[in-house]
């Protein structure tokens, strides 16, 4: 479904993605984990070309684009890839001038040209799913962090993309809600949507991911089946990272459980 | 060949300001009237065409004749050597004398010679500006006679030069304005109809028309109507 | 009745009529065309290929840099020498449109650029193309900041139309000057004209307040007195 | 140290904080937990008066302010409270026109009037503490989510406030970093800074908090010693909320540990 | 040498001198004063008590709504009737300052309001008072959007100073008119004046580009051609 080969991304002199190759199977869920600043967001943004990679090749379905420094990428090709992908941004990026409902309807009406009533019904359904039925007409600026995040998720889901890219989709959610949202996402995955999720919530990752990729400093340190990467990491670095949570769990409320 | 064009169109286009009473202005019904306007109409009639007036600002008026926006300018254009170099003039159709205007309470300025070192409010594009400068006055630029008078009234300028006819019109409107004439120029200056160069036929026809209206009394009627006297000399 | 009041009342219909007949249509038409031109210019400068960007910059540079009066002169008195003889009203319309286009393009460019990049990304991420992103996501947000400076431009225009008098359009101010020519009361007549201009601009100011309210209703910024 | 009595906050008709009374002891750490939209952020913002409560009384150190609908609050009183409090915002709110270093220096130089070199040294020290030494001169717009959050934390710490209000201070951090940041905060608490932390990371909460407050729909459902609230919640609602994580842990990567 | 070129070369020093002596100082002084007045007015409208807000709105309404020429006339020809007799230059300076103040206040108000509320909160949260927040957090961010519309106002001003001719200030355009009076070449002289205006505005445009770059270096928005 998605195939990245030798993707690099530089910002000026800074190499943020360093020769990453990755395959994501249709209908699978891939978790991108790793320390802050490791390049998770950037990699996700490269997949739907919000950042144009410095070099490498991206294949998404039938669309293939090759990148090289100085080479311009055709708008059509970009658009072809973007039409197949949805994205939940780390900082939500809701449209401030549209209500929660309108945010979710926007793509349906503008891009898919659905009639308003149909779009309205679908948007309400999705907002209800993420527990936002009571805030349908609220402006984003009046929503709490978790509420904004849920609208952002609903907005991305609305387009029923073949590929859903989620950047920390539960970072602002309390554990209960996170679990619910994870459920929604799992169901989506089961229905065949391909997902790539950047997250530092290893619980979420291990719960929904088939495949896990551990990214640090723009390089893939370890990747493989999620169970294996989280359960029995091969690399020392990965082991330390994964264990940091168990440590926290053990020393913290974990005692109380 | 311009003459042919005019005849063929049946219209002579005349540029004028429309804001210079009593020569070219709008009456209470907002109709364009005035001495120059009626002269233009009378001349056109003699040419066997209709007069069509185009109103614009002074600087534009001159540019407009270059750009062929009209065929003639009738707007109290003084006949000077400088202008003759670029444009053709008809025979003069009016003579006026420059007068020196000061505030009632001004006793310093008694004649043109006293202008030396004084401030004269003048529309820069007029002949009078040059006359004031020639008398040694320092010019204060304005957009027209009405502003020049304002400057004199507010003591920002000591004097202004203009033609006696305009001043009379002003006094008619504002009898109690505290300004007076202290001197009049000895020799009259003449204004003519401004035409493009290189069209001697048209100049000749216009001159003939001017002569005709003087001969048949039309000119006198117009002159009496606006000034109560004959202003051709 | 005092003299000045009489004069004002007498001149009022004449001025108003000149305003309605020339000032208002000239203002509205040149603003509509100018705003379109400004949007095109702004978008070209932000997104166009380099040659077009240079042309757009040149246009803005020349038009903003030279007096409107001179531009009108060139269009009306200068173009005939290259065989283009325009009537006064169309000449004025072209001049004002070019002007509004240049000034408004700077404003539009600034406000488009002020919308955070993330909003473009959000629009693209739900599959919008550039046009849709611009129309539905960027411009509505940019509008909020654009309204006051654009209405500055619009309201200036109302009064700048008086320059059309220089190229023989008998608009409001010219009408006032005509009356001054026979009454020698510039102050009274000009104030009279100013009152009519003020009335026209007040309509625009009221529109501005409405638009500001409309574009700001989604919050997220300072709640403030106005 | 901080005492809220009968605080209410309405947004229009919506009552977001509903008669909350709360005492926070000097040098203690209070965790605000609860579902998304429960009013955690709003309550924090009421404490340093970024939102003016509709009614109630706030005491912070010596400053006491009483609120009532329609009653204007003096700027001096507000400023007195704000000078004693620092805040880490849920969405960071870095100054975009200042580099990471300048963001941290800003308060020191502008408010405390420190000389630039001293402020610079202090800012560097803090940024190093939160692992941001390598991004000192970066603009906020080029920082990853977690990096922004760390700068925001450093900025708040720089002012050495008597009271530190943290709104989800680890939401964008990976578990390793979260642990580090929590350590920094714990140390601060140990040094006597009073802290109120809104968080949905119950591990963090149980790790650092003395006192826990469970907020839902603007009301306090349960409060008490953190150990007790997390370990043996009294209320059915709290129990369910706390158990949602243990559930996630058990079903998720917890198995692998 | 063709006639027109000769004429241009002859008139150039005269025009330039008028520009340097009157146009430039009038522009710079009235912009400096006007911008200060605009900032005060904008802040008053955003944060002031209601009576002051009403006064500020009234000021903006009247000044934006009436022609600059009329304002100059009233100051120069009208005020003497209440005993205030100003020289031409100060009268012009007052008129232009009031104008820049009104127009720029609208721009400043819009851009201040465009900075997200969260930035105020962030500034307050580290203990800044209102003044510090404004000076160090809000205005620097607002400046990014403000530069193009403000430079519109500034560049317009350069050319609007020609209106000062109406109240006898012998500035650049009037110098051109004086030469027109003897040469009858308005088009050539006006183009000549336009070239000098263009040179003056180009300095401002260049300044605008520099300021835009400076205020935008922190990124977060569209990378775009300019
Ligand atoms: N526009 C940019 N210009 C320069 N550097 C950038 C830019 N965007 C990202 N970076 C840098 O690239 C690195 C990777 O950033 P990225 O946002 O991908 O990290 P991340 O893995 O998502 O981190 P986090 O978990 O904190 O969100 C960071 O060091 C960041 O500072
Ligand atoms: N300015 C506002 N206008 C109207 N409603 C608001 C405003 N700010 C917050 N609210 C509402 O108040 C409620 C509480 O919001 P708050 O941000 O305090 O929640 P929270 O507990 O911090 O949630 P989260 O964990 O999602 O951040 C929410 O329902 C929100 O929609
Ligand atoms: Mg990220
Ligand atoms: Mg919150």
Tally of DSSP helical segments of chain A: 9
The residue ranges of chain A in which pLDDT falls below 50 over 5 or more consecutive positions are 248-257
- Distance from N terminus to C terminus of chain B (CA atoms, Å) equals 32 Å
User: Strand order, biggest sheet of chain A?
Assistant: 6-7-8-3-9-10
Q: From N to C, what is the helix and strand string of chain A?
A: EEEHEEHEHHHEHEHEEHH
End-to-end separation of chain A in angstroms reads 41 Å
Family (chains A, D): Belongs to the ABC transporter superfamily.
Enzyme class (chains A, D): hydrolase
Keywords (chains A, D): ATP-binding, Cell membrane, Hydrolase, Membrane, Nucleotide-binding, Transport
Domain ABC transporter (chains A, D): 2-242
Structural description of this entry:
The complex is a heteropentamer, with two copies of chain A (257 residues), one copy of chain B (233 residues) and two copies of chain C (226 residues). Chain A is 40% helix and 25% strand. With 257 residues, chain A is α/β, with parallel strands linked by helices. Chain A has one domain (2-252): P-loop containing nucleotide triphosphate hydrolases (Rossmann fold), CATH 3.40.50. In chain A, helix 6 (175-190) links the parallel strand 7 (163-167) and strand 8 (194-198). In chain A, helix 3 packs across helix 4 (116-129). The radius of gyration of chain A is 19 Å and the shape is globular. Residues 248-257 of chain A have low confidence and may be disordered. With 233 residues, chain B is α/β, with parallel strands linked by helices. In chain B, strands 1, 4, 5, 6, 7 and 13 form a six-stranded mixed β-sheet that branches. In chain B, strand 9 (119-123), helix 5 and strand 10 (138-142) form a beta-alpha-beta unit. Chain B starts with a helix and ends in a 6-residue tail after the last helix. Chain C has 226 residues and is an all-alpha fold. Helices cover 81% and strands 0% of the residues of chain C. Chain C has helices at 3-47, 50-65, 68-78, 88-114, 117-125, 130-160, 172-183, 186-216. The two termini of chain C are 39 Å apart. The model of chain C has no long low-confidence stretch (mean pLDDT 90). The structure holds adenosine-5'-triphosphate (2 copies) and magnesium ion (2 copies). One magnesium ion (MG) binds at residues 40-41, 90, 167 of chain D.
Write the layout of secondary structure elements.
The complex is a heteropentamer, with two copies of chain A (257 residues), one copy of chain B (233 residues) and two copies of chain C (226 residues).
Chain A: E1 2-11, E2 14-24, E3 29-33, H1 40-47, E4 55-60, E5 63-67, H2 75-84, E6 85-88, H3 100-110, H4 116-129, H5 145-158, E7 163-167, H6 175-190, E8 194-198, H7 202-208, E9 211-216, E10 219-225, H8 226-231, H9 236-251
Parallel strand pairs in A: 3-8, 3-9, 6-7, 7-8
Antiparallel strand pairs in A: 1-2, 1-4, 4-5, 9-10
Chain B: H1 2-9, E1 11-16, E2 25-26, E3 32-33, H2 35-47, E4 50-55, H3 58-66, E5 72-78, H4 81-86, E6 88-89, E7 94-96, E8 98-103, E9 119-123, H5 127-134, E10 138-142, H6 145-153, E11 159-163, H7 164-173, E12 179-184, E13 189-195, H8 200-215, H9 218-227
Parallel strand pairs in B: 1-4, 1-5, 9-10
Antiparallel strand pairs in B: 2-3, 5-13, 6-13, 7-13, 8-11, 8-12
Helix pairs in contact in B: 2-8, 2-9
Chain C: H1 3-47, H2 50-65, H3 68-78, H4 88-114, H5 117-125, H6 130-160, H7 172-183, H8 186-216
The structure holds adenosine-5'-triphosphate (2 copies) and magnesium ion (2 copies).
One magnesium ion binds at residues 40-41, 90, 167 of chain D.
Membrane topology (chains A, D): Peripheral membrane protein
Keywords (chains A, D): ATP-binding, Cell membrane, Hydrolase, Membrane, Nucleotide-binding, Transport
Protein name (chains A, D): Cystine transport system ATP-binding protein
């Amino acid at each position: 479904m998605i195939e990245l080969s030798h993707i690099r991304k530089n910002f000026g002199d800074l190499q943020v993605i360093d020769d990453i190759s990755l395959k994501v199977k249709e209908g699978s869920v891939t978790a991108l984990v790793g320390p802050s600043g490791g390049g998770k967001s950037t990699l996700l943004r490269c997949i739907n070309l919000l950042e144009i990679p410095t070099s490498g090749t991206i294949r998404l379905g039938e669309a293939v684009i090759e990148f090289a420094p100085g080479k311009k990428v055709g708008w059509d090709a970009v658009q072809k890839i973007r039409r197949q992908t949805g994205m939940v941004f780390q900082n939500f990026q809701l449209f401030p001038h549209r209500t929660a409902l309108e945010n979710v309807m926007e793509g349906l009406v503008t891009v898919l040209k659905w009639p308003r009533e149909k779009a309205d019904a679908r948007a309400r359904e999705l907002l209800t799913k993420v527990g936002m039925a009571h805030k349908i007409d609220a402006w984003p600026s009046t929503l709490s962090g978790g509420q904004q995040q849920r609208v952002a998720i609903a907005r991305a889901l609305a387009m029923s993309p073949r590929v859903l890219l989620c950047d920390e989709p539960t970072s602002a959610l309390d554990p209960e809600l996170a679990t619910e949202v994870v459920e929604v996402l799992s169901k989506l995955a089961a229905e065949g949507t391909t997902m790539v999720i950047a997250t530092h919530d290893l619980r979420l990752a291990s719960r929904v991911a088939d495949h896990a990729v551990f990214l640090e400093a723009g390089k893939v340190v370890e990747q493989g089946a999620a169970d294996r990467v989280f359960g029995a990491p091969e690399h020392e670095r990965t082991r330390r990272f994964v264990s940091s949570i168990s440590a926290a769990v053990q020393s913290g409320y974990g005692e109380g459980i | 060949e311009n003459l042919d064009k005019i005849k063929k169109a049946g219209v002579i286009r005349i540029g004028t300001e429309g804001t210079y009473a009593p020569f070219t202005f709008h009456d209470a019904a907002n109709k364009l009237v005035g001495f120059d306007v009626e002269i233009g109409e009378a001349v056109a009639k003699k040419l066997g065409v209709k007069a069509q007036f185009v109103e614009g600002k002074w600087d534009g008026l001159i540019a407009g004749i270059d750009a062929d926006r009209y065929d003639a300018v009738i707007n109290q254009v003084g006949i000077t050597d400088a202008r003759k170099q670029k444009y053709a003039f008809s025979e003069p159709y009016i003579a006026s004398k420059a007068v020196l205007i000061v505030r009632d309470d001004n006793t310093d300025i008694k004649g043109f010679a006293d202008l030396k070192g004084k401030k004269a409010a003048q529309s820069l594009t007029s002949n009078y500006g040059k006359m004031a400068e020639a008398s040694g006055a320092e010019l204060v630029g304005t957009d027209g006679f009405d502003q020049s008078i304002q400057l004199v009234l507010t003591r920002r300028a000591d004097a202004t030069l203009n033609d006696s006819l305009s001043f009379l019109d002003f006094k008619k409107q504002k009898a109690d304005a505290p300004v007076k004439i202290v001197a009049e120029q000895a020799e009259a200056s003449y204004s003519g109809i401004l035409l493009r160069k290189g069209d001697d036929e048209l100049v000749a026809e216009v001159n003939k028309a001017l002569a005709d209206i003087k001969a048949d009394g039309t000119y006198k009627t117009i002159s009496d109507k606006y000034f109560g006297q004959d202003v051709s000399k | 009745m005092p003299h000045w009041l009489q004069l004002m009342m007498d001149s009022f219909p004449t001025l108003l009529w000149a305003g309605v007949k020339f000032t208002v249509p000239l203002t509205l038409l040149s603003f509509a065309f100018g705003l379109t031109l400004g949007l095109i210019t702004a978008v070209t400068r932000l997104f166009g290929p380099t040659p077009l960007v240079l042309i757009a910059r040149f246009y803005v540079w020349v038009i903003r840099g030279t007096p409107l009066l001179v531009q009108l002169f060139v269009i009306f008195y200068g173009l005939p020498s290259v065989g283009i003889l325009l009537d006064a009203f169309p000449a004025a319309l072209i001049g004002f449109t070019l002007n509004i286009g240049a000034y408004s393009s700077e404003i539009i460019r600034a406000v488009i650029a002020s919308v955070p990049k993330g909003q473009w990304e959000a629009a693209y991420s739900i599959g919008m193309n550039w046009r849709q992103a611009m129309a539905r996501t960027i411009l509505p947000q940019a509008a909020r900041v654009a309204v006051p400076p654009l209405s500055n431009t619009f309201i200036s225009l109302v009064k700048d139309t008086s320059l059309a008098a220089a190229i023989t359009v008998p608009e409001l101010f010219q009408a006032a000057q005509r009356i001054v020519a026979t009454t020698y009361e510039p102050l009274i007549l000009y104030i009279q004209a100013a009152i009519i201009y003020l009335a026209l601009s007040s309509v625009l100011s009221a529109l501005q307040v409405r638009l500001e309210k409309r574009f700001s209703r989604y919050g997220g910024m300072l709640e403030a007195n106005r």
